[in-house]
Design goal:
Elements: E1 2-9, E2 12-19, E3 22-25, E4 28-32, H1 44-49, E5 55-58, H2 59-64, H3 68-73, H4 77-81, E6 87-90, H5 93-98, E7 103-105, E8 110-113, E9 120-123, H6 125-135, E10 139-141, H7 153-177, E11 189-194, H8 200-211, E12 217-220, H9 229-239, E13 249-251, H10 257-265, E14 270-272, H11 275-281, E15 284-287, E16 290-293, H12 313-317, H13 320-328, H14 332-359, H15 362-375
Parallel strand pairs: 4-5, 4-14, 5-6, 6-10, 10-11, 11-12, 12-13, 13-14
Antiparallel strand pairs: 1-2, 2-3, 7-8, 8-9, 15-16
Helix pairs in contact: 6-7, 7-8, 8-9, 10-15, 11-14, 13-14, 14-15
């Protein structure tokens, strides 16, 4: 991997990153394809058309079905889903949080009951690395525990210490896997994850600790899981300065356009979130004039596109009235068009952010973008 910061404005930075599966310009939004597909009938050809740089898939879900061994036999995730650009796989660590009722955490790893059929699953650091190696993603995430942001300090302390021990095991395992003859991607990268809830001192201590491990990149996890936006931004202010400036920084699971703009200003490179696809499936679409709810009756006779001047497939060919009709009728095309528009909007916004940093006017771009988006949006 080659990662080079090519422009900065304050703490905001724009970088060029070269990987075995292609180049990435940051800041970047990774479109979330949990089971190797974006929900909403979006194909990899669609992703190319809307200028997606990185696609994200989920280790736990692909392990459950179709099975990572099957994906390996089919040539890895890139060949399986016909995607020739970078892929990041999360580690399964978030499921330690989201499937709290179906798991038990031990030092060796986490015991799950599958959310599909209830069968028992064990995943520890070594298992997560093996699964991600089988998937052959560009970037593998270290296996961690994602505690609720508002958990008690004593629990957070113990959880972060265990996450640190797991990170050492992840690094040792991926180093071994990358040397094996039958490994598909012998250049798989490893990103470590900073945890610590909303306790600044724990976060900073953990950031200093993992920064010494010379990993390929560093993520900030355990945010957008119950804390306020201001608490999130305070943690970023505290933690980012203690992560390596010359390595990519990733804020996991975030977020809204406002979250992204605030985090970019604090030095974040990588983002992912289900918001654009999930909101799109419910008829909520992003525009530079705010978020619209196409189920609203006021769009029943509206012949305008979702957004004038937008280059996405939905806006080039269809009206708000038609898309509203499809949504009301339960037609998949309506959801697909809304998801494509939202992903296009996010990818275009990231391109604008990169340009703004490189031309030295990010602060003004952020001010105008936030004012235009949040002053006039529908009351959803």
């Amino acid at each position: 991997m080659i990662y080079k910061v090519i422009a900065k404005q304050g703490n905001a930075k724009s970088a060029h990153m070269k990987t075995v599966h292609g180049e990435v310009e940051t800041p970047v939004f990774m479109n979330v394809g949990t089971v190797a597909a974006i929900k909403g009938a979006v194909s990899t050809e669609d992703l190319r058309d809307i200028k997606t740089q990185v696609q994200l898939s989920n280790t736990y879900h692909l392990h459950v079905r179709p099975g990572d061994e099957i994906v390996k036999k089919l040539g890895g995730l890139h060949r399986f889903m016909n995607w020739d650009r970078p892929i990041l796989t999360d580690s399964g660590g978030f499921q330690v949080f989201s499937l709290a009722g179906l798991r038990k955490i031990k030092e060796e790893g986490v015991y799950f009951n599958s959310h599909i059929d209830g069968r028992k699953i064990f995943m520890g650091p070594e298992e997560s690395m093996q699964i991600q190696s089988n998937l052959a993603s560009t970037i593998a995430m270290a296996f961690d525990e994602c505690p609720g942001a508002l958990s008690e300090r004593e629990y957070i302390e113990q959880s972060v210490q265990r996450t640190s021990r797991w990170l050492v095991r992840c690094k040792d395992k991926i180093d071994c896997l990358n040397k094996l003859e039958n490994t598909i991607n012998k250049n798989q990268l490893l990103f470590g994850i900073n945890q610590g809830g909303i306790f600044e001192d724990i976060r900073i201590r953990h950031a200093k600790e993992i920064s010494q491990m010379n990993l390929d990149g560093y993520a900030i996890g355990g945010l957008a899981v119950g804390e306020s936006h201001e608490e999130m931004y305070n943690i970023l202010d505290a933690v980012v300065p203690y992560l390596p400036y010359d390595k990519p920084t990733y804020l996991m699971g975030v977020g809204t356009p406002a979250n992204i703009l605030e985090a970019v200003e604090r030095g974040i490179d990588f983002f992912d979130c289900v918001y654009p696809s999930r909101n799109g499936r419910h008829g909520h679409v992003y525009t530079d004039s705010g978020k619209l709810n196409l189920f609203n009756k006021k769009y029943e006779l509206d012949e305008a596109p979702i957004e004038d001047g937008c280059g996405c497939m939905a806006c080039r060919a269809h009206s708000r009235a038609y898309i509203r009709h499809l949504l009301k009728a339960g037609e998949m095309l309506g959801m697909r068009l809304c998801v494509l528009h939202n992903l296009y909007f996010y990818n275009k916004m990231m391109s604008e952010i990169r340009d703004a940093i490189r031309y030295g006017d990010f602060k003004e771009y952020k001010r105008v973008k936030l004012k235009s988006m949040y002053d006039r949006q529908d009351k959803i």
